[in-house]
């Protein structure tokens, strides 16, 4: 099927940022996203789950409370919008088939929770916690914890009971996940076994909540892309705590004897993109947040006139070329 043409495709980034979200008029239908959603439906059908979450375009990924559906971010519907997302956020969340399917399975967990009102069950609350718990602005996960499954980045299951269930469901749903072996000996296995039992119980049953409501559809969002990205950048690029000064002093030296060496600030700036991508890959942290941290590190290094200390220069070069 040929891709639909849009007038805004040929606009420059500055011109495109002036467009309103409502004017984009992109849809799930007719794009690669349609194939992703179809694959999700096939996975649900194989498990006997009757609910098929409806989907629509919005500003971000989410499944509204009380609605068994999934909102998909607009930028995934067109390569030009994905390119702008990459420029503005350094990353395209859900921009590959694998990542898109991972997020869809997670959001399907929310949709099924909403459709079948699973959070009302006592056993659900005992294992995952109260769904009414306040969502934190930030959370501090324990990467070593075995009480939660590991699916999306940043140990997202640890952020809220609803996310814990959605992540557990996603692991359970993914074909060939081999979760019984993967999580053998983990306390999280009890949650997976419960989900397996629960999905067997609701298999073939019509969900009590069947609304096809669509919340914050793209056509109703009047903000410009520029306004959208300013808000999104502000969310991720918070001012990081300055807890790395001691680490900088261990990596770099302010000794006058090294005044001829390249400044640490210049070295970090030169390898900035690679450091940001490497740390994001291993930690799952958002690249925009990491960029803010690197800004602070460059500023701190410049004010201290630090230069690479001899023992660490070769190790840095090795890691940056890997």
What would you call the shape?
globular
The percentage helix is 40-55%
User: Order of SSEs, N→C?
Assistant: HHEEHHHHHHHHEHHHEH
Unreliable segments of 5+ consecutive residues: 305-322
SS summary, helix count: 14
Per DSSP E runs of 2 or more residues, the count of β-strands stands at 4
Summarize the topology.
Layout: H1 13-17, H2 32-46, E1 54-58, E2 69-73, H3 79-89, H4 97-116, H5 122-128, H6 161-173, H7 179-182, H8 188-202, H9 225-236, H10 245-251, E3 252-253, H11 264-270, H12 272-283, H13 287-304, E4 307-308, H14 310-320
Parallel strand pairs: 1-2
Antiparallel strand pairs: 3-4
Describe the structure.
The chain is mainly alpha-helical. It has helices at residues 13-17, 32-46, 79-89, 97-116, 122-128, 161-173, 179-182, 188-202, 225-236, 245-251, 264-270, 272-283, 287-304, 310-320; strands spanning 54-58, 69-73, 252-253, 307-308. Helix 2 crosses helix 4, helix 6 crosses helix 8 and helix 11 (264-270) runs antiparallel to helix 13 (287-304).
Which terms would index this structure?
mainly alpha; globular; 322 residues; 14 helices; single chain; two-stranded antiparallel ribbon; 4% strand; 4 strands; two-stranded parallel sheet; disordered C terminus
């Amino acid at each position: 099927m040929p891709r639909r043409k849009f007038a805004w495709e040929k606009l420059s980034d500055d011109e495109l940022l002036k467009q309103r979200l409502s004017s984009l008029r992109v849809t799930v239908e007719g794009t690669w996203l349609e194939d992703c959603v179809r694959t999700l439906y096939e996975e649900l059908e194989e498990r006997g789950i009757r609910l098929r979450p409806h989907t629509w375009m919005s500003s971000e990924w989410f499944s509204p409370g009380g609605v068994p559906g999934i909102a998909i971010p607009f930028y995934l519907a067109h390569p030009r919008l994905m390119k702008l997302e990459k420029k503005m956020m350094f990353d395209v969340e859900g921009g590959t088939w694998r990542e898109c399917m991972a997020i869809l399975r997670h959001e399907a967990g929310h949709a099924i929770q909403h459709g079948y009102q699973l959070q009302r069950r006592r056993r659900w609350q005992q294992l995952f916690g109260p769904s009414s718990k306040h969502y934190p602005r930030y959370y501090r996960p324990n990467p070593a914890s075995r009480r939660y499954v590991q699916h999306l980045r940043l140990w997202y299951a640890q952020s809220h009971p609803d996310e814990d269930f959605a992540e557990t469901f996603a692991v359970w749903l993914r074909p060939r996940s081999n979760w019984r072996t993967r999580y053998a000996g983990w306390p999280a296995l009890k949650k997976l076994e419960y989900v397996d039992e629960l999905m067997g119980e609701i298999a073939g049953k019509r969900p009590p909540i069947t609304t096809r409501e669509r919340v914050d559809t793209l056509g109703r969002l009047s903000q410009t892309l520029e306004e959208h990205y300013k808000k999104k950048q502000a969310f991720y690029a918070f001012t990081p705590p300055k807890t790395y000064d001691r680490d900088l002093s261990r990596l770099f030296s302010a000794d006058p004897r090294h005044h001829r060496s390249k400044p640490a600030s210049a070295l970090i700036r030169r390898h900035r993109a690679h450091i940001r991508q490497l740390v994001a890959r291993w930690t799952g942290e958002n690249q925009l947040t990491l960029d803010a941290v690197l800004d602070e590190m460059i500023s701190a290094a410049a004010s201290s006139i630090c230069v690479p200390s001899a023992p660490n220069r070769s190790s840095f070069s090795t890691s940056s070329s890997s």
